[in-house]
Amino acid sequence: MTEITGRHWLMIAVLGLTWGGTFMVVEIALRGITPFWLAAARIGLGALVTSTIWQLRGGKLFAQRPTGSHIRTLAVIGVFSSAMPFMLLNWGQQYVTSGFAGVSMASVALFVLPLAHFFVPGEHLTWRRTLGFLIGFVGVSILIGGQALSSSGAEMELAGRIACMAAACCYACSVILMRRLPAVNAIGLAAVLLLIGSLVAIPVALIVEGPPPALDGETLIATLVLALIPTAGANMLRVAVVRSAGPVFATLVSYQVPLWSVLLGTLFLAEPLPSTLLWALGLILCGMGLSQYGPLMRLFGRRSNAAQQGSPQT
């Protein structure tokens, strides 16, 4: 039985704040760097850090010899878990707020539901999951089509919204594909996926945006922060949470990310906070909670029982 301690709660809180604040830092970085080069720099530096740590820990990836299918799946995951979503999010954040981008990431868990139903054996859309998906889908519809942002007259605002949601779809696809992999070293997996992502993002940045731009001090710091903290550091922290507290507990970070992104964007970037954005956020979080009701209740039910069994009798 997994015992959830105060250390685990602190770790999950740090993850939520780190990933929730990522969108604010991206907004700052985009003032001095083009979106695809920001993605390439973030992925490339993150790959360098995680690969170094992975090699120091032995450099082993698969527990058993992988098949050609496993290698191909790994390559696709590398594209869908870093290269594509990072480029889409950076491009989209040129036209939408960081708060919007963060809220759009809450829809990843919703997109996973129908994909798992069709592509993962044993994962079916129960009535509760279906209802949760429908509620969340209403929130996503409001997010894309409603006035979730105060319109600044940007002609590409709708395209930016769609790009953010497309990034969420990429993450959902990578989650499903990861279930096809055999047992792997988690840190090695993070390193390899970032390496694959960099092999895609760097050439795309060169082709689309030309040579990398010269960076001012603020942009350089923001880029380094993105590479080292949310890309490399937080991914390894997530590995530690999953290993010590379980994957269900780790999903709690998904509820924090959109909240932090909206709060930080409002406080530090003076971003607008329209009611439709809050409605969309509330519906998406409700849909997520309802669709994951069973696993979460089992998690906290076990924790409650363990606490009762360990309490002194009076």
Short description:
This protein is mainly alpha-helical. 77% of the residues lie in helices and 0% in strands.
Tell me about this structure:
With 314 residues, the chain is mainly α. The protein has one domain. It contains 13 helices and no strands. Helix 2 runs antiparallel to helix 8, helix 5 crosses helix 7 and helix 8 packs antiparallel against helix 9. The radius of gyration is 20 Å and the shape is globular. It starts with 5 loop residues before the first helix and ends with a helix. The relative contact order is 0.22. About 2% of the residues have low confidence. InterPro entries: AA-Vitamin_Transporters (IPR050638), EamA_dom (IPR000620), EmrE-like (IPR037185). It comes from Parasedimentitalea denitrificans.
Distance between the termini: 25 Å
Work out the helicity level. Answer: over 70%
Summing up helix and strand content along with how strands pair, one would put the structural category as: mainly alpha
Compressed to H and E, one letter per element, the order equals: HHHHHHHHHHHHH
Mean pLDDT: 88
Low-confidence stretches: 148-153
Assembly of the depicted chains: single chain
Total tally of structural domains: 1
Overall form: globular
Please state the CA-atom Rg, rounded to the nearest Å: 20 Å
- Give a short account of the largest sheet: none
Number of helices in the DSSP assignment: 13
Number of extended strands: 0
Strand content: under 5%
